[in-house]
């Protein structure tokens, strides 16, 4: 459930970013890359802890 929540939050933040990409410029792009990196690190951590395995 937490992984779904993280992906859902990612989508909620990415949609407005995609709409305003031209106005945000390079700084906005870098901020979103950092945000996506944090989400991916959390997902990899969950995979390594075997939280996402079906029992």
Q: What do these coordinates show?
A:
The chain has 55 residues and is mostly helical. Helices cover 84% and strands 0% of the residues. The chain has two helices and no strands. The relative contact order is 0.14. The model has no long low-confidence stretch (mean pLDDT 86).
Secondary structure layout plus pairing:
Layout: H1 2-19, H2 21-48
Helix pairs in contact: 1-2
Task: Produce a short descriptive summary.
This protein is mostly helical and 55 residues long. The protein has helices at residues 2-19, 21-48.
The averaged pLDDT comes out at 86
Which oligomeric form is depicted? Answer: single chain
β-strand number: 0
Question: What is the element string, with H for helices and E for strands?
Answer: HH
Task: Please outline the major beta sheet.
Answer: none
Question: Key features?
Answer:
55 residues; mainly alpha; elongated
């Amino acid at each position: 459930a937490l992984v779904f929540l993280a992906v859902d939050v990612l989508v909620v933040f990415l949609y407005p970013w995609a709409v305003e990409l031209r106005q945000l410029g390079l700084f906005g792009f870098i901020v979103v890359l950092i945000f996506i990196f944090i989400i991916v690190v959390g997902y990899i951590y969950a995979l390594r802890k075997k939280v996402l395995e079906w029992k």
